[in-house]
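Box S1 | Example of a co-folding query
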Amino acid sequence: MPPWCPISPYKGLLILVIAFVLLEYFMNTFTSSKTSLYLNTTKLLSDDKENRYGPLLKTLLFKNNKTYSYNKTILSTTKNESYFSYVVTHPPSLASKLNNSSLTPSVSEATSTIEAQNESIPLCPDDVSFNLKGRIPIIRTPVPTVQDLEKRFNWLQPGGHWQPENCRVLSKVAIVIPFRCRGEHLLLFLQHMHPFLKRQQLDYRIFVVEQDGEKSFNRAMLMNIGYKEALNVNHFDCFIFHDIDLLPEDDRNLYTCPNQPRHMSVAVDILKYKLPYPEIFGGVSAISTEHFKLLNGFSNSFWGWGGEDDDMSNRIRYHHLHISRYPLTIARYTMLTHKKDKPSPSRYDVLKQGQQRFDKDGLNNLQYKLIHKKFNLLYTWILVEINQPS
Ligand code: UDP
Ligand code: MN
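Box S1 (continued) | Returned holo structure for uridine-5'-diphosphate
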């Protein structure tokens, strides 16, 4: 065929495909993006960290049959735990792979999730008020089904996780709920909270920590377990400990951790929207990861209703921290109705002895058996067995 003749459609298509492959190759070879990977090395001994995480990262990137250069920075480190950030320089086409959370569990050595963030997107604004509504209605009926909610909140990522798509948030928030036999409350809570937290433009994940069996309930211990298990999943900067039955009435009540522990449920409807006493720290509270560790978490010694929140209030004071609060007009909550539990008769005695145990009763003597951990779309579910010492 003479060269000026029109080429056959098949050849044309072939040339186009080759041109596209070459362009893709060029883009990947000669341009680069940066992605940060955050690793939490909980459970690894300090000497071991260096050796194990170097190979770990290589393994991760080898999935692509290539290695890429990275800069490693220690974000924070304590006796047993460090957070590293690796900034990896890579072709743009890898960004979506690094951001794909399905990649992470396949890293066999990882004790934690590795989250990728694309540094090419800008930081989210500090002021999110443009996105808020202020007072919001509390919906009690009809109670939605799981399927309902999963359909409505299809923007969630497994484990009840969301983060803004077009901007980066520096702080990660874990919402921890102590739970047993409050199925309806859980559905109403999720229905209310996911859109609420999304409007606040948070990078958050909801953990439901359920106590197995019917023995005495231990709210504080479940929250300690939530803290530990959450940090096995990812790095979090901020923890919100949340009763399942308290629904915030105003989305200006930000679910973040300020530089002092914050008592969030200041004005509850059934308490006539008044603070019952100044030291109260029950219901909903926000404590930074760093402070929670300093406080040695909650006491594990309060079985049955009451006392554990006042013990935490004492721990905060003992460590020269102070309780901060939003005004009554904003930190408003509705409590869903439930049968009132009988207060535990021993709570005052345990509370009185509290101070002697601050440094040996809490995160550092926590014992439990993890029965189940599941990343549902609406929340990360953690089922545990805990036993009251006889
Ligand atoms: N809780 C639960 N099941 C129970 C008892 C308590 O899930 O059988 C959890 C739930 O998150 C609840 C919180 O512990 O909101 C506090 O318990 P409750 O609501 O009974 O306390 P009160 O409202 O009387 O302070
Ligand atoms: Mn309640």
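The two ends are 94 Å apart (CA to CA). The chain has two domains: 11-19+29-119, 129-385.
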